[in-house]
Hints:
Strand order of the largest sheet: 3-4-5-2-6-7-1-8
CATH architecture of the largest domain: 3-Layer(aba) Sandwich
CATH class of the largest domain: Alpha Beta
CATH superfamily of the largest domain: P-loop containing nucleotide triphosphate hydrolases
Distance between the termini: 67 Å
Number of strands: 14
CATH topology of the largest domain: Rossmann fold
Number of domains: 2
Helix content: 25-40%
Order of helices and strands: HEHEHEEEEHEHEHHEEEHEHEHEHHH
Mean pLDDT: 90
Radius of gyration: 26 Å
Largest sheet: 8 strands, mixed
Low-confidence stretches: 314-318
Amino acid sequence: MKYHLLDAQRKFLEIPHDYSLDVAVYQGGYGSGKTFAGALLGILLAIKFPGIVGLVGAQTYTLVRDTTLKTYLEHLENIGFKEGVDFKWVSALQKLVFHNKSEILFRHFDEPNKLKSLNLGFVEIEEMSDIPYDTFKMLLGRMRQRKKANWHNFTYRIFGHTNPEVQKGWIYKTFYENPAPNYRLITAPTTQNIYLPEGFCDELKKLYDKTYYDIFVMGNAGDYSTNLVVKDFTADNIREIQYQKDLPLHISCDFNVDPMAWVLAHKTEDKVFYFDELVLENTTTSKTCDEFHERYPDHKGKVIVNGDASGDNRSCVSEYTNYVIIKKKLEAYGYDVEINIKAFNPPIKNRIAAFNAKVRNADGEISLYISPKCEKLLYNIYNLRYIEGSSKIDIPTYTQIKQTKELKFLSHPFDAASYLVDFYWPIVL
């Protein structure tokens, strides 16, 4: 059996570097040959390196079984391998075992901790953009099967295939923004697959709108600004901001135990400059004050505390409000502290409108700047979204946060930053 591979498939299979690990993503539209190429690569590795252990998975086992495993079995049939002779499917263990003792395990990634005992030679990931970044990092750590003497020119490989992300997720950050030299992104438009039925792409063009067609047929990256809470934020809003110990320093607070999120800023009459953030996990208001003092022990100007109005309510664990705790603790350290908060929080839509007006107003003027040090705040700027078709912010669920720890930092740093803007430059809608 001879395959005539598409250019993108050949680039995906072949390694253009000499590193010990190759990480590749085949990103393409519907029918661009993604799963075909991935399954073929897995079989070639199993044949070339006797005794190798590979893992094939997706976020759900249904996807693994109905798509990936089916493609593996089709390849094996095409190349003339006979079940029971050249390979066998062990249903109880969900794995393919080859006559040369290579094994390919088929698993779901919904409970990644169950995969931590594996030592692997390769991993294939179906619909790579669906799995959390933490799962990807865990799989990187499993690439440690002991090399055998007859494995000539062996390279550990993690390879996946996926449709383009519709928002700026971990694949964008890992493979677009600043990829490592052994990380590869291969883009494959559906239109380049000459083996599709005649007129296939023309029919899709009639069916889909332009944005959807560009992403899921042409394989292009999505419009990452769609549904974003913060609008019109660009590189012009990011700058190195010099902390000034003699100027008033604003601390704007969102009170949450995990994480607690405070942003630090200087401001003028019409501009705000966020120069640092305190985003701490499993902490208290008092401990966050300690962290502030460790970073800025010599601050001479006034410390002005803004933030969530509900922080002025007593909790069941303290006779003091969060703001009383802050004032007492910071004054004990020797700071000149002033509390400036609203009597109650405005509707969130007002706060968002005020923040966006400072990011860039209708005349294109920028009045809000963020330091690169504020990593979690910038993460919110780029990823906090509305639920599609609604004005409700898409807050991650507990299950989503459990799978992807980074999601726990969505909303709280933005809330802290927007409380400050809304206090000094409110917009009434």
